[in-house]
Design a protein that fits this description.
This protein is an alpha/beta fold and about 250 residues long. The chain contains ten helices and five strands. β4 and β5 form a beta hairpin. The longest helix is centred in the last third of the chain and has 19 residues. It is globular and about 55 Å long.
């Protein structure tokens, strides 16, 4: 997915990003963040992939049922995370207005890194953004979240099927989704757009899981990369692949 990146990138991330993570107030993530301070009213940060995954799925069950907790969304929390952050999960989702990860997982301020692109389209900048949490603050979970009736996927599918390029930079999204289109065509099915959307999630998660910088964390079980799919009809998140084991 990002095979053409500069060979000095690992050194850059180890050095420059580590410094930048401390220097940038808005994006700071540091190992001595005040998460361990006693007596503060906030949910304890999950530190393992399984615990982080369980937290997200518990939140989604609340979203489906309507019994929301709205955790960590008050002025105290805002002040608490103002100087440092340590999110327990990273979510790569679509730009669709109906799929806000913070809401459908019932999470709070400072809980998630969120990247949103049309159809979860990826490129070097997006990949680097997904890598940021695991590589700078030990975020133990990445979720690639596709969804039902994705407009970006449908537009790309019709573009390829009809041999009509999309206007402007929308065509860049289509190009990023071509592998998913080709898989959907090979596999067939009654709803090729939904098949393509699910294929995009699986392919993107697999690419991240085998990424040269993330793969060592996955092998050590310090990181899980989950492919998931959101139903607009029910609000439920379905896990397609990569759910971490509790063992």
């Amino acid at each position: 997915m990002d095979r053409a990146e500069h060979p000095d990138r690992r050194a850059l991330l180890a050095g420059g990003l580590a410094v930048g993570a401390i220097a940038l107030t808005g994006c700071s993530a540091r190992s001595d963040a005040p998460w361990a301070a006693a007596g503060l009213a906030h949910e304890v940060r999950p530190v393992t992939p399984a615990a982080a995954f369980a937290r997200l799925m518990d939140g989604n069950r609340r979203w489906v049922s309507g019994h929301l907790h709205h955790p960590d969304r008050d002025p105290d929390r805002r002040e608490f995370v103002a100087q440092a952050q340590e999110p327990f999960g990273s979510v790569l989702s679509c730009i669709d207005s109906r799929v806000p990860p913070e809401l459908l997982f019932d999470t709070g301020l400072g809980d998630l890194y969120v990247m949103r692109t049309g159809g979860q389209a990826v490129g070097p900048v997006v990949t680097g953004s997904v890598e940021y949490g695991p590589m700078t603050s030990g975020t133990p979970l990445i979720v690639v979240l596709g969804h039902q009736r994705c407009g970006a996927v449908e537009a790309a599918y019709k573009s390829f099927r009809d041999h009509k390029p999309l206007p402007g930079n929308l065509q860049a999204i289509a190009r990023a989704l071509r592998p998913a289109y080709e898989r959907a065509v090979r596999e067939g099915g009654s709803d090729p757009v939904e098949s393509m959307a699910r294929a995009q999630v699986r392919l993107t998660a697999a690419d991240l899981r085998s990424n040269r910088d993330l793969a060592p964390l996955v092998r050590k079980r310090a990181l899980a990369v989950v492919a998931a799919y959101y139903s607009l009809d029910t609000g439920r998140v379905e896990v397609l692949a990569g759910a971490p084991s509790r063992s």
